[in-house]
Design brief:
352 residues, alpha/beta, 5-stranded mixed β-sheet, 11 helices
Protein backbone atom coordinates (compact mmCIF):
# COMPACT_ATOMS: atom_id res chain seq x y z
CA UNK A 1 0.00 0.00 0.00
CA UNK A 2 1.21 3.52 -0.79
CA UNK A 3 2.25 5.70 2.12
CA UNK A 4 2.65 9.48 2.45
CA UNK A 5 6.17 10.86 2.58
CA UNK A 6 7.38 11.02 6.19
CA UNK A 7 10.66 12.79 5.45
CA UNK A 8 9.44 16.26 4.49
CA UNK A 9 9.05 19.07 6.99
CA UNK A 10 5.52 19.67 8.15
CA UNK A 11 3.89 23.03 7.58
CA UNK A 12 0.47 24.20 8.69
CA UNK A 13 -2.05 25.67 6.27
CA UNK A 14 -4.52 27.07 8.75
CA UNK A 15 -5.33 24.02 10.87
CA UNK A 16 -4.41 21.55 8.11
CA UNK A 17 -1.03 19.78 8.49
CA UNK A 18 0.85 19.33 5.24
CA UNK A 19 3.92 17.12 4.88
CA UNK A 20 5.89 15.26 7.51
CA UNK A 21 3.78 12.11 7.18
CA UNK A 22 0.40 13.86 7.34
CA UNK A 23 -2.27 12.48 5.01
CA UNK A 24 -2.02 13.80 1.46
CA UNK A 25 -4.06 17.02 1.38
CA UNK A 26 -6.75 17.59 -1.28
CA UNK A 27 -6.86 21.04 -2.85
CA UNK A 28 -8.82 22.90 -5.49
CA UNK A 29 -9.02 26.47 -6.80
CA UNK A 30 -11.92 28.89 -6.93
CA UNK A 31 -13.08 30.20 -10.29
CA UNK A 32 -15.78 32.63 -9.20
CA UNK A 33 -15.44 36.36 -9.80
CA UNK A 34 -12.60 37.63 -7.62
CA UNK A 35 -14.72 40.59 -6.52
CA UNK A 36 -17.80 38.57 -5.54
CA UNK A 37 -17.34 37.39 -1.97
CA UNK A 38 -20.63 35.51 -1.74
CA UNK A 39 -20.04 33.61 -4.97
CA UNK A 40 -16.62 32.50 -3.72
CA UNK A 41 -17.95 31.56 -0.29
CA UNK A 42 -20.75 29.54 -1.85
CA UNK A 43 -18.24 27.71 -4.01
CA UNK A 44 -16.02 27.04 -0.99
CA UNK A 45 -18.96 25.51 0.86
CA UNK A 46 -19.70 23.22 -2.09
CA UNK A 47 -16.04 22.22 -2.31
CA UNK A 48 -15.87 21.57 1.44
CA UNK A 49 -18.88 19.28 1.23
CA UNK A 50 -17.12 17.37 -1.57
CA UNK A 51 -14.03 16.86 0.62
CA UNK A 52 -11.76 19.76 -0.30
CA UNK A 53 -9.38 20.59 2.54
CA UNK A 54 -7.52 23.66 1.26
CA UNK A 55 -8.78 26.13 -1.33
CA UNK A 56 -6.83 28.61 -3.45
CA UNK A 57 -8.10 31.98 -4.62
CA UNK A 58 -6.53 34.15 -7.30
CA UNK A 59 -6.10 37.85 -6.50
CA UNK A 60 -5.56 39.42 -9.91
CA UNK A 61 -5.76 43.07 -8.81
CA UNK A 62 -5.36 45.14 -5.68
CA UNK A 63 -9.04 46.09 -5.75
CA UNK A 64 -9.85 42.42 -5.12
CA UNK A 65 -8.17 42.41 -1.70
CA UNK A 66 -11.27 43.48 0.23
CA UNK A 67 -13.17 40.55 -1.25
CA UNK A 68 -10.30 38.21 -0.42
CA UNK A 69 -10.28 39.44 3.19
CA UNK A 70 -14.01 38.77 3.57
CA UNK A 71 -13.66 35.31 2.02
CA UNK A 72 -10.83 34.43 4.43
CA UNK A 73 -12.84 35.65 7.40
CA UNK A 74 -15.93 33.58 6.55
CA UNK A 75 -14.45 30.52 4.84
CA UNK A 76 -14.74 27.10 6.54
CA UNK A 77 -11.51 26.11 4.72
CA UNK A 78 -8.05 27.68 4.84
CA UNK A 79 -7.64 30.00 1.85
CA UNK A 80 -4.40 30.26 -0.14
CA UNK A 81 -3.68 33.53 -1.93
CA UNK A 82 -2.54 32.97 -5.51
CA UNK A 83 -0.51 36.02 -6.54
CA UNK A 84 1.52 36.89 -9.63
CA UNK A 85 3.42 40.01 -10.69
CA UNK A 86 2.58 42.23 -7.69
CA UNK A 87 4.35 41.76 -4.36
CA UNK A 88 2.09 44.35 -2.73
CA UNK A 89 -0.91 42.06 -3.28
CA UNK A 90 0.97 39.14 -1.68
CA UNK A 91 1.96 41.26 1.31
CA UNK A 92 -1.57 42.57 1.80
CA UNK A 93 -3.08 39.09 1.37
CA UNK A 94 -0.82 37.78 4.14
CA UNK A 95 -2.03 40.56 6.43
CA UNK A 96 -5.68 40.04 5.53
CA UNK A 97 -6.04 36.39 6.45
CA UNK A 98 -4.32 34.19 3.88
CA UNK A 99 -3.48 30.77 5.31
CA UNK A 100 -0.69 30.43 2.76
CA UNK A 101 0.79 32.35 -0.17
CA UNK A 102 1.46 30.94 -3.62
CA UNK A 103 4.04 33.00 -5.50
CA UNK A 104 6.62 32.56 -8.23
CA UNK A 105 9.72 34.54 -7.17
CA UNK A 106 10.58 34.80 -10.85
CA UNK A 107 7.60 37.03 -11.62
CA UNK A 108 6.83 38.69 -8.28
CA UNK A 109 9.39 41.46 -8.81
CA UNK A 110 12.83 40.01 -8.05
CA UNK A 111 14.57 38.89 -4.88
CA UNK A 112 14.12 42.17 -3.02
CA UNK A 113 10.36 42.00 -3.47
CA UNK A 114 10.47 38.31 -2.58
CA UNK A 115 12.29 39.22 0.65
CA UNK A 116 9.51 41.65 1.54
CA UNK A 117 6.87 38.98 0.99
CA UNK A 118 8.91 36.50 3.00
CA UNK A 119 9.22 38.92 5.90
CA UNK A 120 5.47 39.47 6.17
CA UNK A 121 4.75 35.73 5.80
CA UNK A 122 7.13 35.08 8.68
CA UNK A 123 5.39 37.72 10.80
CA UNK A 124 2.00 36.15 10.07
CA UNK A 125 3.29 32.60 10.57
CA UNK A 126 2.06 31.35 7.21
CA UNK A 127 3.85 29.20 4.62
CA UNK A 128 4.78 30.15 1.08
CA UNK A 129 4.42 27.83 -1.88
CA UNK A 130 7.22 28.46 -4.34
CA UNK A 131 5.57 27.64 -7.64
CA UNK A 132 7.58 27.32 -10.82
CA UNK A 133 6.04 26.33 -14.15
CA UNK A 134 7.41 25.38 -17.53
CA UNK A 135 5.95 28.54 -19.01
CA UNK A 136 7.46 30.98 -16.52
CA UNK A 137 11.10 29.98 -16.14
CA UNK A 138 13.82 32.59 -15.85
CA UNK A 139 14.79 33.54 -19.43
CA UNK A 140 18.46 32.71 -18.94
CA UNK A 141 17.68 29.30 -17.48
CA UNK A 142 15.00 28.57 -20.08
CA UNK A 143 17.51 29.24 -22.87
CA UNK A 144 20.03 26.65 -21.67
CA UNK A 145 20.29 23.85 -24.25
CA UNK A 146 22.35 21.62 -21.95
CA UNK A 147 19.43 21.00 -19.58
CA UNK A 148 16.18 19.11 -20.05
CA UNK A 149 12.91 20.76 -19.03
CA UNK A 150 12.73 18.73 -15.78
CA UNK A 151 16.31 19.74 -14.95
CA UNK A 152 15.48 23.39 -15.56
CA UNK A 153 12.40 23.24 -13.37
CA UNK A 154 14.27 21.48 -10.58
CA UNK A 155 17.21 23.88 -10.70
CA UNK A 156 14.86 26.86 -10.58
CA UNK A 157 12.87 25.49 -7.63
CA UNK A 158 15.94 24.25 -5.73
CA UNK A 159 17.73 27.59 -6.16
CA UNK A 160 14.75 29.42 -4.70
CA UNK A 161 14.53 26.96 -1.80
CA UNK A 162 18.19 27.47 -0.97
CA UNK A 163 17.69 31.23 -1.13
CA UNK A 164 14.64 31.12 1.18
CA UNK A 165 16.43 28.85 3.66
CA UNK A 166 19.50 31.10 3.62
CA UNK A 167 17.20 33.92 4.76
CA UNK A 168 16.01 31.72 7.61
CA UNK A 169 12.59 31.03 6.07
CA UNK A 170 11.83 27.30 5.98
CA UNK A 171 8.01 27.39 6.09
CA UNK A 172 7.82 26.50 2.41
CA UNK A 173 6.13 24.17 -0.06
CA UNK A 174 7.30 23.66 -3.64
CA UNK A 175 5.54 22.92 -6.92
CA UNK A 176 7.13 22.56 -10.35
CA UNK A 177 4.46 21.71 -12.89
CA UNK A 178 4.28 21.00 -16.60
CA UNK A 179 1.40 19.86 -18.81
CA UNK A 180 3.51 16.96 -20.07
CA UNK A 181 3.07 13.85 -17.91
CA UNK A 182 6.54 12.25 -18.31
CA UNK A 183 8.21 15.63 -17.73
CA UNK A 184 6.18 16.19 -14.58
CA UNK A 185 7.00 12.74 -13.20
CA UNK A 186 10.72 13.22 -13.85
CA UNK A 187 10.65 16.73 -12.36
CA UNK A 188 9.12 15.61 -9.07
CA UNK A 189 11.38 12.58 -8.81
CA UNK A 190 14.38 14.88 -9.12
CA UNK A 191 12.89 17.36 -6.65
CA UNK A 192 12.36 14.60 -4.09
CA UNK A 193 16.08 13.83 -4.36
CA UNK A 194 17.32 17.42 -4.53
CA UNK A 195 15.20 18.96 -1.76
CA UNK A 196 13.87 15.97 0.23
CA UNK A 197 13.09 18.17 3.23
CA UNK A 198 10.51 20.31 1.41
CA UNK A 199 6.83 19.31 1.10
CA UNK A 200 5.73 19.01 -2.52
CA UNK A 201 2.51 20.19 -4.11
CA UNK A 202 1.96 17.92 -7.11
CA UNK A 203 -0.20 18.38 -10.18
CA UNK A 204 -0.33 18.28 -13.95
CA UNK A 205 -0.89 21.86 -14.99
CA UNK A 206 -3.24 22.73 -17.86
CA UNK A 207 -4.29 19.05 -18.00
CA UNK A 208 -7.38 19.84 -20.06
CA UNK A 209 -11.07 19.07 -19.88
CA UNK A 210 -12.49 16.38 -17.61
CA UNK A 211 -11.87 13.22 -19.64
CA UNK A 212 -8.33 14.00 -20.76
CA UNK A 213 -7.42 15.91 -17.60
CA UNK A 214 -8.39 13.13 -15.21
CA UNK A 215 -6.52 10.51 -17.23
CA UNK A 216 -3.38 12.64 -17.51
CA UNK A 217 -3.49 13.58 -13.83
CA UNK A 218 -4.19 10.07 -12.59
CA UNK A 219 -1.39 8.56 -14.67
CA UNK A 220 1.19 11.12 -13.61
CA UNK A 221 0.20 11.76 -10.02
CA UNK A 222 -0.57 8.10 -9.38
CA UNK A 223 3.02 7.18 -10.25
CA UNK A 224 4.36 9.84 -7.89
CA UNK A 225 2.04 9.08 -4.99
CA UNK A 226 2.75 5.36 -5.22
CA UNK A 227 6.43 6.22 -4.77
CA UNK A 228 5.70 8.38 -1.72
CA UNK A 229 6.22 11.67 -3.59
CA UNK A 230 3.66 14.39 -2.96
CA UNK A 231 2.22 15.92 0.20
CA UNK A 232 -0.73 17.72 -1.36
CA UNK A 233 -2.35 17.59 -4.78
CA UNK A 234 -4.72 19.34 -7.10
CA UNK A 235 -6.15 17.68 -10.19
CA UNK A 236 -6.49 20.70 -12.48
CA UNK A 237 -9.44 20.46 -14.86
CA UNK A 238 -11.19 22.81 -17.26
CA UNK A 239 -14.41 21.98 -15.46
CA UNK A 240 -16.28 22.43 -12.20
CA UNK A 241 -13.76 22.53 -9.32
CA UNK A 242 -15.94 20.07 -7.41
CA UNK A 243 -15.03 17.45 -10.01
CA UNK A 244 -11.37 18.11 -9.23
CA UNK A 245 -12.00 17.21 -5.60
CA UNK A 246 -13.91 14.04 -6.47
CA UNK A 247 -11.10 13.01 -8.81
CA UNK A 248 -8.48 13.59 -6.10
CA UNK A 249 -10.31 11.42 -3.61
CA UNK A 250 -10.92 8.69 -6.17
CA UNK A 251 -7.21 8.63 -6.98
CA UNK A 252 -6.16 8.54 -3.33
CA UNK A 253 -8.65 5.76 -2.65
CA UNK A 254 -7.46 3.72 -5.62
CA UNK A 255 -3.90 3.91 -4.27
CA UNK A 256 -4.94 2.93 -0.75
CA UNK A 257 -3.77 6.26 0.65
CA UNK A 258 -7.05 7.78 1.82
CA UNK A 259 -10.72 7.05 1.38
CA UNK A 260 -13.64 9.42 1.70
CA UNK A 261 -16.98 7.98 0.80
CA UNK A 262 -17.87 4.86 -1.17
CA UNK A 263 -15.93 3.04 -3.88
CA UNK A 264 -17.96 1.65 -6.75
CA UNK A 265 -16.96 -1.68 -8.29
CA UNK A 266 -18.80 -2.52 -11.51
CA UNK A 267 -18.11 -4.89 -14.38
CA UNK A 268 -17.78 -3.70 -18.00
CA UNK A 269 -20.84 -5.68 -19.29
CA UNK A 270 -20.92 -8.36 -21.98
CA UNK A 271 -23.39 -10.51 -23.89
CA UNK A 272 -24.38 -12.37 -20.69
CA UNK A 273 -25.88 -9.22 -19.16
CA UNK A 274 -29.71 -9.19 -19.04
CA UNK A 275 -30.28 -5.82 -17.35
CA UNK A 276 -29.39 -2.22 -18.21
CA UNK A 277 -26.18 -2.44 -16.22
CA UNK A 278 -24.67 0.80 -17.51
CA UNK A 279 -27.76 2.72 -16.45
CA UNK A 280 -27.86 0.94 -13.08
CA UNK A 281 -24.20 1.66 -12.36
CA UNK A 282 -24.62 5.31 -13.31
CA UNK A 283 -27.65 5.65 -11.02
CA UNK A 284 -25.78 4.04 -8.14
CA UNK A 285 -22.78 6.29 -8.73
CA UNK A 286 -25.02 9.36 -8.68
CA UNK A 287 -26.81 8.29 -5.50
CA UNK A 288 -23.54 7.46 -3.76
CA UNK A 289 -22.35 11.06 -4.08
CA UNK A 290 -24.47 11.86 -1.04
CA UNK A 291 -22.95 9.02 1.04
CA UNK A 292 -19.87 9.58 3.21
CA UNK A 293 -19.37 6.05 4.55
CA UNK A 294 -16.12 4.50 3.20
CA UNK A 295 -17.91 1.43 1.86
CA UNK A 296 -17.24 -0.65 -1.25
CA UNK A 297 -20.31 -1.17 -3.43
CA UNK A 298 -20.41 -3.68 -6.31
CA UNK A 299 -22.76 -3.63 -9.29
CA UNK A 300 -22.15 -6.78 -11.32
CA UNK A 301 -23.85 -7.84 -14.54
CA UNK A 302 -24.16 -11.59 -14.01
CA UNK A 303 -23.24 -14.50 -11.73
CA UNK A 304 -19.84 -14.89 -13.44
CA UNK A 305 -18.79 -11.51 -12.04
CA UNK A 306 -21.07 -11.66 -9.05
CA UNK A 307 -20.26 -12.36 -5.40
CA UNK A 308 -17.22 -14.39 -6.40
CA UNK A 309 -15.14 -11.61 -7.93
CA UNK A 310 -16.69 -8.95 -5.68
CA UNK A 311 -16.66 -10.99 -2.48
CA UNK A 312 -14.85 -8.24 -0.58
CA UNK A 313 -17.56 -5.63 -1.30
CA UNK A 314 -19.49 -4.43 1.72
CA UNK A 315 -22.69 -4.55 -0.32
CA UNK A 316 -23.41 -5.47 -3.92
CA UNK A 317 -25.74 -6.89 -6.50
CA UNK A 318 -25.30 -9.65 -9.07
CA UNK A 319 -27.84 -9.26 -11.85
CA UNK A 320 -29.80 -11.88 -13.75
CA UNK A 321 -32.76 -11.73 -16.11
CA UNK A 322 -34.48 -8.48 -15.11
CA UNK A 323 -33.56 -8.91 -11.47
CA UNK A 324 -30.66 -8.82 -9.06
CA UNK A 325 -29.38 -10.80 -6.08
CA UNK A 326 -28.11 -8.57 -3.31
CA UNK A 327 -25.09 -9.76 -1.34
CA UNK A 328 -22.90 -8.53 1.49
CA UNK A 329 -19.24 -9.56 1.65
CA UNK A 330 -19.93 -12.55 -0.57
CA UNK A 331 -23.03 -13.78 1.30
CA UNK A 332 -26.35 -13.62 -0.56
CA UNK A 333 -29.19 -11.59 0.96
CA UNK A 334 -32.29 -11.50 -1.27
CA UNK A 335 -33.54 -10.93 -4.81
CA UNK A 336 -35.13 -7.73 -6.11
CA UNK A 337 -36.52 -6.79 -9.51
CA UNK A 338 -34.42 -4.55 -11.73
CA UNK A 339 -36.46 -1.41 -11.03
CA UNK A 340 -35.78 -1.73 -7.27
CA UNK A 341 -32.07 -2.57 -7.34
CA UNK A 342 -30.76 0.95 -6.76
CA UNK A 343 -33.12 1.72 -3.87
CA UNK A 344 -32.41 -1.67 -2.27
CA UNK A 345 -28.66 -1.11 -2.44
CA UNK A 346 -28.96 2.30 -0.81
CA UNK A 347 -31.22 0.91 1.92
CA UNK A 348 -28.67 -1.79 2.73
CA UNK A 349 -25.86 0.77 2.78
CA UNK A 350 -27.80 2.81 5.34
CA UNK A 351 -27.82 -0.27 7.62
CA UNK A 352 -24.02 -0.59 7.60
Amino acid sequence: MSKPNTHTRQVMVGQVPLGGGAPVVVQSMLNANAQDAQANLQQIQTLAEAGCEVVRMAIPRRDCLDTFQQVCAESPLPVVADVHFDSVIAIEAAKRGAAKLRINPGNIGGLQKTNEVMEVAAEQGIPIRIGVNAGSLDAQLAARADLTLPQKLVQSAADYVRYFEAQGFTNIVVSAKAHDVPATIETYRLLAEEIPQVPLHIGITEAGTAFQGIIKSASGLGVLLEQGIGDTLRISLTDDPTLEVRACWTLLSALGLRRRGPELVSCPTCGRCQVNLIGLAQQVEQRLQGVTKPVQVAVMGCVVNGPGEAASADIGVACGNGEGMLFAQGETLYKVEESRIVDALLQEIEKL
